[in-house]
């Protein structure tokens, strides 16, 4: 037996997600594993690294000095980053790397010792595509390399008793949203989990949901808190998930949870604030009140949470938190019921929500939130194709103006008005003012950030501002499918098609029934020239969107035409245009002519789209597929008339 002890730098590597990939596609996993080993071994040799062992899907490598080890690690991640940028998500190779400098013991070709154990633990702290190293390595190279480093503290390392300071090489790895177990969760980022309904009547579920939403709304008034949106918070309704897991998924350090029991005119509410990192209680309370005191309960919960998190309440925040929306318990309970129905989005549910909001307005004609609910419901009826624009748009305008006349500080109403001005009237400057006002009133309102990016910043190609608002919306409401969809649409317009496809995959992961995301993936493949994939997805998912048959045919005709299947494209377009019972929107016909290569015919329906205020026109004018026509005077004139050249 040959034993030897010496100082060395140990590198541990590991492929991210390899076990999961092996379960789904073993052949692909093995192919990527072989490729990964071949690529990394060539870089080990270049930097004088000695391969000691293969540890499953990773390597154990020894270096005689820290400089070689760090340079080798950066070379690996830089090479893989460049490789991954040219690949789809499924065939990417993401690796974590950990480094530690310490004593190792050699025995019969293998190495052991604390240095090996610490390197393996540090590797698990690295971001996908990133590098983590201990202070021993950091201090050996910090003045010898140009790479940036950031400390991530002294995280607990399994089976390591002595505290170890860990650093991360900056500009490598996934964004902070995917941080590993060593990262602290921000305590002032708060999620209000769905309050549990303990009422004898299960039909009182709406009251528990409404209480959740109202507590979220009041906490949003507190400067210094970042509050997760309702959509993401409500995704945990009825699920048994540990606080730590929720904290990591939402990247939030504080959770509010509780229950409500309503019996006749009395309520019992319990609430507690939990540290998501430690799962310890920071505050808890119980309230036994009359129903009309529910506003005081909501106010107290918000104030107690702010106090527990040591956030100073400014006078304007105290005023907003204490605002009593209505003195009518009937109006308030009808409003809560209406919001629960509105969030379901089906035609039947939204129609029932309208009746609730109308009832709330009758019970209290000065209840601004009820009119805001009406405006949002009329907007959904039009946007989702349940009712014609000519019928719904005047009702949206009337309701939103009434809401703002009663309460000019409703962020929801300003957002709805901004979307209305941009989508239907192309009054871009006024729309932008409404969105900015909404964000000023409630910076935590994810929909305001999303709508500002979608309706104003995107059509004007203000990309830096757009992406900032897109990411903010996603940060505030990470589990809402529409937020990932919005990011995919942003990337699509920037011609970053593979990244857009990844965002649409996240939509499907959150909501497998959100098939519109698959249709958007088809668009990405088409623009990228991957015609077979584009047509396959379009054929599979267009029929599942609930569109009229004529719209399905003309859209599929566009896909066939761009893909070179002109005879099939002409047949579908002819069939669609002959079905006058289902009129085709002008922009849809313009795309059909573009697909057929009859581009001169494309401009007549685009002009008609302007005359008819077709809401799809601004998006058609910025579609990357229109790039060859950007210098055409007809397209320029359309952009001028719509206001996109101003």
Would you mind describing this structure in some detail?
By secondary structure, this protein is an alpha/beta fold. Among the domains are: about 5-180, Nucleotide cyclase, GGDEF domain (Alpha-Beta Plaits, 2-Layer Sandwich); about 190-325, 3-Layer(aba) Sandwich (Rossmann fold), CATH 3.40.50; about 545-645, no CATH class. Helices cover about 55% and strands about 15% of the residues. The chain has 28 helices and 14 strands. The strands form 2 sheets. Strands 1, 2, 3, 4, 5, 6, 7 and 8 form an 8-stranded mixed sheet that branches. Strands 9, 10, 11, 12, 13 and 14 form a 6-stranded mixed sheet that branches. Strand 12 and strand 13 form a beta hairpin. Helix 12 (about 345-365) runs antiparallel to helix 13. The longest helix has 21 residues, at about 25-45. The radius of gyration is 29 Å and the shape is globular.
Chain-wise SSE layout:
Layout: E1 3-15, H1 18-24, H2 26-46, E2 50-55, E3 58-63, H3 66-84, E4 95-107, E5 110-112, H4 114-123, E6 131-134, H5 135-141, E7 149-151, E8 166-169, E9 189-192, E10 196-197, H6 205-219, E11 226-227, H7 230-234, H8 243-250, E12 254-263, E13 266-275, E14 281-290, H9 294-308, H10 315-321, H11 329-342, H12 347-363, H13 368-383, H14 389-406, H15 411-425, H16 428-441, H17 446-457, H18 463-476, H19 481-493, H20 497-510, H21 516-527, H22 531-541, H23 549-562, H24 566-578, H25 586-596, H26 599-611, H27 617-622, H28 633-642
Parallel strand pairs: 4-6, 9-11, 9-12, 10-12
Antiparallel strand pairs: 1-3, 1-4, 2-3, 4-5, 6-8, 7-8, 12-13, 13-14
Helix pairs in contact: 1-2, 6-9, 6-11, 11-12, 11-13, 12-13, 13-14, 14-15, 15-16, 15-17, 16-17, 17-18, 18-19, 19-20, 20-21, 21-22, 22-23, 23-24, 23-25, 24-25, 25-26, 26-28
């Amino acid at each position: 037996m040959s034993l030897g002890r010496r100082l060395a730098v140990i590198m541990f590597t590991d492929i991210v997600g390899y076990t999961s990939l092996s379960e789904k596609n073993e052949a692909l996993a093995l192919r990527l594993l072989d490729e990964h080993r071949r690529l990394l071994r060539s870089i080990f040799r270049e930097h004088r690294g000695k391969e000691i062992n293969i540890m499953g899907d990773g390597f154990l490598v020894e270096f005689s000095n820290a400089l070689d080890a760090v340079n080798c690690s950066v070379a690996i991640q830089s090479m893989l980053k460049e490789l991954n940028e040219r690949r789809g998500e499924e065939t990417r190779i993401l690796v974590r790397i950990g480094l530690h400098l310490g004593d190792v013991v050699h025995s019969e070709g293998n190495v052991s010792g604390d240095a090996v154990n610490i390197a393996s633990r540090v590797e698990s702290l690295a971001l996908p595509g990133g590098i983590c190293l201990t202070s021993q390595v950091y201090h050996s190279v910090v003045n010898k390399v140009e790479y940036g480093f950031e400390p991530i503290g002294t995280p607990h390392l399994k089976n390591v008793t002595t505290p170890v300071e860990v650093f991360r090489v900056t500009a490598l790895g996934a964004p902070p949203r995917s941080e590993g177990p060593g990262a602290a969760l921000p305590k002032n980022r708060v999620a209000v989990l769905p309050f549990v309904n303990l009422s004898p009547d299960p039909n009182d579920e709406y009251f528990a949901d409404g209480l959740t939403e109202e507590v979220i709304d009041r906490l949003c008034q507190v400067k210094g808190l970042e509050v997760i949106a309702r959509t993401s918070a409500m995704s945990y309704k009825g699920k048994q998930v540990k606080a730590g897991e929720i904290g990591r998924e939402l990247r939030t350090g504080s959770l509010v949870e509780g229950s409500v029991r309503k019996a006749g005119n009395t309520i019992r509410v319990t609430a507690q604030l939990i540290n998501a990192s430690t799962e310890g209680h920071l505050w808890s309370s119980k309230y036994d009140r009359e129903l009309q005191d529910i506003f005081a309960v909501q106010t107290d919960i918000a104030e107690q949470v702010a106090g527990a998190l040591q956030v100073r309440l400014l006078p304007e925040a105290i005023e907003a938190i204490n605002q009593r929306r209505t003195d009518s318990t009937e109006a308030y309970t009808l409003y809560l019921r209406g919001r629960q129905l509105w969030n379901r989005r089906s035609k039947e549910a939204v129609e029932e929500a309208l009746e609730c909001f109308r009832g709330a307005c009758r019970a209290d004609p000065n209840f601004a939130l009820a009119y805001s609910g009406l405006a949002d419901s009329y907007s959904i009826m039009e946007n989702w194709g349940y009712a014609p624009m000519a019928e719904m748009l005047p009702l949206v305008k009337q309701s939103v103006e009434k809401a703002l006349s009663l309460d000019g500080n409703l962020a929801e109403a300003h957002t709805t008005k901004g979307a209305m001005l941009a989508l239907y009237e192309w009054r871009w400057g006024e729309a932008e003012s409404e969105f900015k006002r909404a964000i000023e009133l409630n910076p935590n309102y994810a929909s305001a950030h999303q709508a500002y990016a979608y309706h104003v910043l995107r059509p004007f190609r203000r990309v830096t501002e757009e992406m900032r608002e897109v990411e903010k919306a996603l940060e505030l409401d990470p589990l809402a499918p529409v937020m990932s969809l919005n990011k995919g649409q942003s990337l699509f317009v920037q011609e970053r098609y593979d990244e857009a496809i990844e965002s649409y995959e996240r939509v499907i992961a959150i909501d497998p029934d959100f098939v519109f995301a698959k249709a958007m993936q088809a668009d990405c493949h088409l623009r990228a020239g991957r015609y077979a994939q584009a047509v396959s997805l379009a054929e599979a998912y267009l029929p599942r969107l609930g569109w009229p048959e004529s719209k399905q045919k003309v859209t599929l005709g566009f896909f066939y035409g761009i893909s070179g299947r002109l005879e099939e494209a002409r047949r579908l377009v002819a069939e669609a245009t002959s079905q006058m019972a289902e009129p085709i929107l002008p922009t849809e016909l313009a795309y059909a002519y573009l697909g057929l290569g009859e581009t001169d015919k494309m401009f007549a329906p685009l002009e008609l789209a302007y005359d008819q205020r077709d809401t799809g026109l601004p998006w058609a004018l910025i579609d990357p597929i229109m790039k060859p026509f950007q210098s055409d005077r007809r397209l320029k004139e359309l952009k001028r008339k719509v206001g996109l050249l101003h």
